[in-house]
Amino acid sequence: MGELEARKLKFSNTGTEAILMGILVEGTNRASKLLRANGFTLTKVREEAIKLIGKPDYFYFSPEHPPLTESAQKALDWAVDEKLKAGDDGEITTSHLLLGVWSQKEGAGYKIMAMLGFDDEKAQQLHSLVSKPGFVED
User: Fold this and answer.
1) Is the N end or the C end of the chain the one with fewer CB atoms within 10 Å?
2) How far apart are the first and last CA of the chain?
3) Which backbone phi and psi does 39 adopt, to 5 degrees?
4) β-pair partners for 14
5) Domains contained in the chain, CATH given
6) Is 135 exposed, middle or buried (0-12, 13-18, 19+ CB in 10 A)?
7) pLDDT digits (tens, 9 = 90+) for 36-92
8) Is 87 left (phi over 0), alpha (psi -120 to 50) or beta?
9) Among candidates 135, 72, 131, which has minimal Cα distance to 100?
């Protein structure tokens, strides 16, 4: 869903901001509910992404599959590593992805989250939940 959001905004890459938007678009997951409970909306995140990255040329066509930025790849790698540390072989959840975005302090997703009020305390609460063996996203 993040890739689709990147394409909608005509971004040439899928960055951590697009992953963040994808989590919000899905809407039924724990990470999305946490963000919404803290005042995050897709509109706010899109506006902040455009402020940070800039609005692309109106006539630019985003690739069908915009490649991941370095920080987006690191966020995904972080999510996989954290899931493996928990000793589970279940799926990587949107909560893992959200924490992966938060782990990339140089990424646009982190900056947007921080601007909209997400902090280390909220991240730690979510991390303590997802790092328990057997964690399942509801």
Assistant:
1) C
2) 18
3) 85, 5
4) 68
5) 2-130 (1.10.1780.10)
6) middle
7) 999 999 999 999 999 999 887 666 677 788 899 999 999 999 999 988 887 766 788
8) left
9) 72
